[in-house]
Amino acid sequence: MREAEIHDIEVQVFLEALRLRHGYDFTHYARASIKRRLEGLVKDMGHQNLSEIIPLLLREHDMLPKVLGSMSVPVTEMFRDPQIFKALREKVLPMLSTYPRVNIWQAGCATGEEVYSLAILLKEEGLYDKTSIYATDINDSAIARAEEGIVSQKCMEVYSRNYLAAGGKGALSDYYHARYNFVKLDETLKKNIVFAHHNVVADGVFCETHLLLCRNLLIYFSKDLQDQVLRLFYDSLVRGGFLCLGSRESIRFSSIADEFTPVDETLRIFRCCPRLEKR
Ligand SMILES: C[S@@+](CC[C@H](N)C(=O)[O-])C[C@H]1O[C@@H](n2cnc3c(N)ncnc32)[C@H](O)[C@@H]1O
Question: Within the chain, which residue ranges are assigned CATH 3.40.50.150?
């Protein structure tokens, strides 16, 4: 099949249609990445150009999940960047253990590998039973996969290495059952996890959060949109709460930068200490 041909003006009209018809605003996402995603959508649907699917977007109900699925990049892994999980284990969880109840929000959970990693960490550090974890994403099919807790067997070698590098106290295989070419993660890991649809661009504060992980999502946004979302995160965090971003993301440029102090700047872990309290 011929490569899908996409013009900038079509992308603009498509994004406006998506915003006006369905309330999803992707206009401030990095344009090059959006264009690549839309090329994939046009090709998958067997069309020649983006204009052909704009009427479908306006009229057909089943287009929205398809579009959201194609716009999202649910790439993830268990204990991705293990040194971050090690730092959470050593520097953040000991402080959270002093609270009677802990709320964690993982925004942009994709297919769930990161939130299950967090659950393992919490179990090993004895915090799991007093913790509620909210794992959210815009992509419903990714959330459905996350809820199943099924991971491809061929990833487990890398994930096991990551787990040990993150200071794992046993073996990753303690937390899953192997079945043919996939593994099923232990059901008890998701006992305190609530998976939900949430759009960080348009939806409100999620909960009174003690730890907020949002890694490798802000990189898809313009600086202004990053600022808007970081403000939502600030409003969601309790005073003294922790924010953990991806390795290519930062709060430094943003309007809430002064409200945080670094726990580990290189690992992008920050603590919410509002200006007034620092004086
Ligand atoms: C690259 S994945 C990151 C997964 C995981 N946090 C990690 O670092 O391994 C980015 C996720 O952000 C989600 N996403 C994109 N835009 C979003 C939005 N506006 N609100 C919530 N999630 C969003 C995508 O659906 C995708 O699952």
Answer: 82-149+185-278
The reply to whether ligand 1 has any atom less than 6 angstroms from the CB of 111 is no
Centre of ligand 1 to C-alpha 76, Å, is: 9
Q: Which fold has domain 82-149+185-278?
A: Rossmann fold (3.40.50)
Q: Is 108 in the pocket of ligand 1 (CB under 6 A)?
A: yes
Answer for the pair 114, 80: CB distance below 8 angstroms, yes or no: yes
Find where tokens 């069309």 sit. 47
DSSP 8-class letter at 117: H
| pLDDT over 70 (residue 278) | no
Q: From CA 129, how far away is CA 122, in angstroms rounded?
A: 8
- Is any atom of ligand 1 closer than 6 Å to the C-beta of 112? no
- Convert the pLDDT of each residue in 201-224 to its tens digit: 999 997 799 999 999 999 999 999
pLDDT in tens, 15-73: 999 999 999 999 999 889 899 999 999 999 999 999 999 999 999 989 999 999 999 88
Q: Give strand pairing partners of 29.
A: 221
Backbone angles phi, psi at 246, to 5 degrees: -80, 165
How far, in Å, from the CA of 277 to the mean position of ligand 1? 32
Beta bridge partners of 26: none
The percent helix, strand, coil of the chain (3-state, each to 5) is: 45, 20, 30
Q: What is the model's pLDDT at position 180?
A: 87
pLDDT of residue 240: 96
According to DSSP, the β-strands at 182-185 and 176-179 are antiparallel
